[in-house]
Amino acid sequence: MKHSPKTPFLSCVALFFSLIFSAHSTASNRYYADNTLEPTSGFAWDWSAGASYYVEDSYLVGMKSYDVGAELDLSLAISFDNFYLDFDHNQLSGGLVLGYSLINKYDWELDLLGTNAQAGFDEQGLGFYNDGIIDSLRGIKKRNYDFNAGLRLTRRFDSSQISLEYLHDISGTHNSWVANVFFSHIQPWRNWEFRSGIGLSAYSADFTNYYFGIDSDEANATRPIYNTDASTSIIFEFHAEYPINQDWVFLAGWLSTWFSKEIDNSPIISQGYQHKAKVGVRYVL
Amino acid sequence: MYFRFFYCLLFSYSGSLLAAPVQISAQLSAVPDTCVALREGRNCYADVVLSWQQVEVGNYCLRDATSKYIMQCWLKQRQGSFNYAFDSTQSISFELFNSNTSQVIAVTEVKLQWVYQNRQKKRRWRLF
Predict the structure, then answer these.
(1) What domains, with CATH codes, occur in chain B?
(2) pTM
(3) Long-range residue pairs from B26-30, CB within 8 A, at least 24 positions apart, any chain
């Protein structure tokens, strides 16, 4: 991603929004035991905003090893009876989730789920703020964001939670499956809150080839045709929050992903891992 | 010339000191006087310094205003301080009292605040 020329502008915008927007926020990351994506009676909503500064080491070839920039952390959770929509941008593992709670009994939950699993990318790389074609990606076809639907089974244990998801693409992007297992734990320590999680994802061969395969139209002297099998990845997240005062929260997060050789060996992948870290603040009225 | 300026400055400064009302600081104070927890219902932690001062030398004690647990006493003193490890899910008040008469002389409070509400208390909006 090419963020540098726009970083001061984005920082100002981020700070502006963080000052304007505020809310009585609650956690809503679906992978953690205190998420609010539960059945409600009637309509309920919750939103928050903040800004953070990140450092990212992406796995795509041609990307900077240490890309830095500022970004907005907008979050929105809406629920109506058993339906919910959640957009979590506070934690690095967050994202857009549309759901319907089928069963919520004792410590078990079964949900119908719709969510994005893989970010799209093109010749300009991965991200929102691209400003030019990356030479080593020049000539590749655009990979779209997917949108998958499926089931999630969750079991909570006080501050811990394990989730199993089986999803299938319904956007026509790769038309295949993704499966996730994620275990998380929330640990308070004095006024801090530490949230950590580890997950394993499996991707179908169609998924892997759509995003990381190279077909004959894309191949060139330095980018051979690449066709592979199903792949996996392991994800690790650490997130910390500390109340600066009643209105401001300091947050810091780390997300690492390690990819199996089916992804790592792709000609458009420079390394078998990627890391992203961020520090930021969130204003809460 | 310099001496004249110096004396002028000195007198104007001392004059302002004399003109100012006599300031008596609070008899009992807590610093910080607020503890902020991340979530409602969770324990809040803070290192609080409770300081007191009196005009007269005497025997004074500091205690929890609710439990009446005495934290420290001072004999023949007119001021003192106590480092208190705040660890509570609610605000705590403290009292300074005269140990000879048991009369409460001053009260202060460490207020508890939190950032996030409990998840059951979601913001609701009804159309009808």
Answers:
(1) 24-116 (2.60.40.10)
(2) 0.79
(3) B26/B106, B26/B108, B27/B52, B27/B53, B27/B54, B27/B96, B27/B105, B27/B106, B28/B52, B28/B62, B28/B94, B28/B95, B28/B96, B28/B105, B28/B106, B28/B107, B28/B108, B29/B108, B30/B84, B30/B94, B30/B108, B30/B109, B30/B110
